[in-house]
């Protein structure tokens, strides 16, 4: 084998090896637990339809999504929940979209009396996501919405 062929073969192996190693490191890069695309909406009772509140968010983690705890609170209350507080609140319903992503929706039942007693004004939604591997991500103000009548 000539020297020129040997050198170009070694260069080719090095290039292919670099591409494979780079591709593998990208494939094994861990994704951090995230809560994205959070949206909250309150609809007052209207035309015979009851009041409704809905919060939806996309949750992602490389190990999978275990749960999303959610609490809505009026800004005027100065409540400001902590991650510890969030461990004992209601859970959203999460639907697996892929191995790493779930879309989670929180839609509590609101009686007419409950809806009428909600403080008007700005409200926040706090969220605590938990991954299958036990990691957590706390989002103190994942979404903002207005309660009006």
What does this structure look like?
The protein is an alpha+beta fold. Helices cover 23% and strands 42% of the residues. The chain is built from 3 helices and 7 strands. It has a 4-stranded antiparallel β-sheet with strand order 1-2-5-4, with no helix packed on it. The longest helix has 25 residues. The N terminus is likely disordered.
Q: How is the secondary structure organized here?
A:
Blueprint: H1 3-27, E1 34-43, E2 52-60, E3 65-74, H2 83-86, E4 93-96, E5 101-106, H3 112-117, E6 121-131, E7 136-147
Antiparallel strand pairs: 1-2, 2-5, 3-6, 4-5, 6-7
Brief rundown of the structure:
By secondary structure, the protein is an alpha+beta fold. The protein is built from three helices and seven strands, in the order αβββαββαββ. β1 (about 35-45) and β2 form a beta hairpin.
Helicity level: 10-25%
Secondary-structure class: alpha+beta
Could you tell me the mean pLDDT? 86
Strand content: 35-45%
Largest sheet: 4 strands, antiparallel
Task: Give, in spatial order, the strands making up the sheet with the most strands.
Answer: 1-2-5-4
| Low-confidence segments | 3-27
What is the count of helical runs? 3
Query: Compute the gyration radius: what is it?
Result: 24 Å
Helix-strand topology string: HEEEHEEHEE
Shape: globular
Total strand count, please? 7
Distance between the termini: 85 Å
């Amino acid at each position: 084998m000539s020297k020129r062929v040997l050198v170009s073969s070694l260069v080719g192996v090095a290039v292919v090896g670099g591409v494979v190693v780079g591709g593998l490191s990208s494939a094994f890069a861990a994704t951090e637990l995230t809560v994205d695309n959070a949206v909250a909406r309150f609809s007052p009772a209207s035309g015979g339809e009851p009041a409704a509140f809905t919060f939806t968010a996309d949750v992602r983690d490389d190990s999978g999504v275990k749960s999303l705890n959610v609490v809505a609170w009026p800004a005027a209350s100065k409540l400001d929940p902590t991650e510890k507080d969030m461990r004992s609140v209601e859970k959203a319903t999460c639907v697996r979209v892929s191995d790493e992503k779930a879309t989670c929706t929180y839609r509590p039942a609101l009686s007419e009396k409950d809806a009428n007693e909600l403080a008007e004004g700005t409200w926040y939604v706090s969220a605590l996501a938990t991954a299958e591997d036990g990691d957590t991500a706390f989002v103190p103000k994942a979404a903002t919405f207005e309660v009006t009548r």
